[in-house]
Amino acid sequence: MIRLTYTLLLTLLSPLFLYSLYKKKEGKPAFGSRWKEHFGITPPLKSDQPPIWIHAVSVGEAIAATIVIKALKKRYPEQTIVVTTTTSTGAEQIAKLDSLVEHRYMPIDFCFAVRGFIKATKPTKMLIMETELWPNTLHTVAQFKIPIYVINARLSEKSYRGYKKVQPFFNLLGKHLTQICCQYKDDAERFITLGISPEKVCVTGSVKFDIKITEEVIESGKQLREQIGTNRPVWIAASTHKGEDEKILMAHKALLQSIPNALLILVPRHPDRFNDVFELCQAENLTVIRRTSKRPVDEGIQVYIGDTMGEMLTLIGASDACFMGGSLLGNKVGGHNILEPIALNIPTIIGPSYFNFAEIVNTLVTNKGCLVVQEKDLTSSILTLLTDIESATELSSNALRFFKGQQGAIDRSMGVLFSINKVNKC
Q1: How many degrees, rounded to 5, is the angle at CA 241 between CA 238 and CA 246?
Q2: Scanning 110, 167, 250, 264, which has the fewest C-beta atoms within 10 Å of its C-beta?
Q3: What does residue 103 show for φ and ψ, rounded to 5 degrees?
Q4: Separate counts of helices (H) and strands (E) for the chain
């Protein structure tokens, strides 16, 4: 009866949900003809091998899923993986994995839509990133006798209180879960308090910290730094968006008043904006050069545009300080992943809008490993990081120490999925 009531409510509210999902928004990729996948009209996979199904609702979960996918493919290179996302921005993130996976949009939480997806893809396991739990999806997947794992699971105090108010509803969800791999002990304890059997709950840590920085990446960063100048301060504004570049260039022009030979590496988030950003720099009377031009970067160059794909780690590694973009535009973007510069031991700051990575940023701020700055303070913050070596080193060292202490979640999660080893129970 509870699930029937829920389904009726979902039917009434689904037009609003779909309107929000398909509404055009600047920087948001279009669904195109693939909207039908939300209704279970799912194209068959290219491989005949039954896949592992990983669901990552949007960008943050997709980034976590990327780390899991790479680990899975390293251990089991022949394993087929299908990844579902609800949003097109999540799909954009998964597209970076290219041939490692196949992507499909997640069916809406109606039994008929989920059945259509399962019949088309025939998964052997379902891995849910974070805690994206839908009653009809879990019910239908369980009907097909597919084990369901929650990876990188979180249950905040607020969510816990919300589920507690509708305990019978949560019981519908919990009974279908095979195993919940929690990020922290507090999360595990909340799941158990809600009635999940302790045997189904374990603590594996957050997979987002299992970033691997290769020697090749480190060396390429050093080589680039030699090309752009080892005797000048360099900062990077990574993954910037339209409307944000102007603010960053203004901050850089102010910085040049104090450090005339400072260089800004500016990396727009979307390739279709490379030309616009180059022209914007020229309009601001800044001496600018593009990475693809292959021209020498002499002392007179003030802005170096990273207009290539797949080189973000190299560009960050060549810098003395990093500002992570997508964080100066109010509630439009919500920031980008700050763990990559931290893994490279680069002191990192981010603007006030970082809701996509709130937990990581807030934890790092608490551990004095990251700074959140307002737009008006961007210049002074960068100036401090470039001139006060002791403060910059302390910031990056605190971040890296915390980062390394959080690693190992992938191995522990793989142990649960494939019964390789025991992990911490709550």
Answers
A1: 95
A2: 167
A3: -105, 140
A4: 17, 15
Pairing of strands 303-305, 321-324: unpaired
- Domain membership of residue 34 (yes or no) is yes
- Catalytic residue set: 61
AA letter at 357 = F
Collapsed DSSP state (helix, strand, coil) of residue 14: helix
Tokens of 379: 């210049």
* DSSP result, 342-409: HHTT--EEE-S--GGGHHHHHHHHHTT--EE--GGGHHHHHHHHHH-HHHHHHHHHHHHHHHHHT--H
Residues 292 and 420 both lie in one domain: no
Residue 17: its pLDDT value, please?
81
**Strand arrangement of the beta sheet that strand 125-129 belongs to:** 102-105, 81-85, 52-55, 125-129, 148-153, 179-182, 201-203, 424-425
**219 and 192 in one domain?**
no
**Domains held by the chain: number:** 2
Q: Is residue 4 situated within a structural domain?
A: no
Smallest CA-to-CA distance from 55 within 16, 81, 22 is with 81
CA distances to 51, 80, 389 from 45, rounded to whole Å, are 9, 9, 53
pLDDT value of position 26: 62
Which residue reads 């990475």 in tokens? 291
Give the 3-state secondary structure percentages of the chain, helix then strand then coil, rounded to 5. Answer: 50, 15, 35
- Strand positions, DSSP E, 252-373: 263-268, 288-290, 303-305, 321-324, 348-350, 371-372
- Domain of 289 in residue numbering reads as 215-405
176 and 227 share one domain: no
Q: What is the CATH number of the domain that holds 57?
A: 3.40.50.11720
Predicted model pTM: 0.74
* pLDDT tens-digit series, residues 15-61: 888 888 878 776 577 888 899 999 999 999 999 899 999 999 877 78
Residues 418, 368, single domain; the answer is no
Looking at residue 422, what is its pLDDT? 52
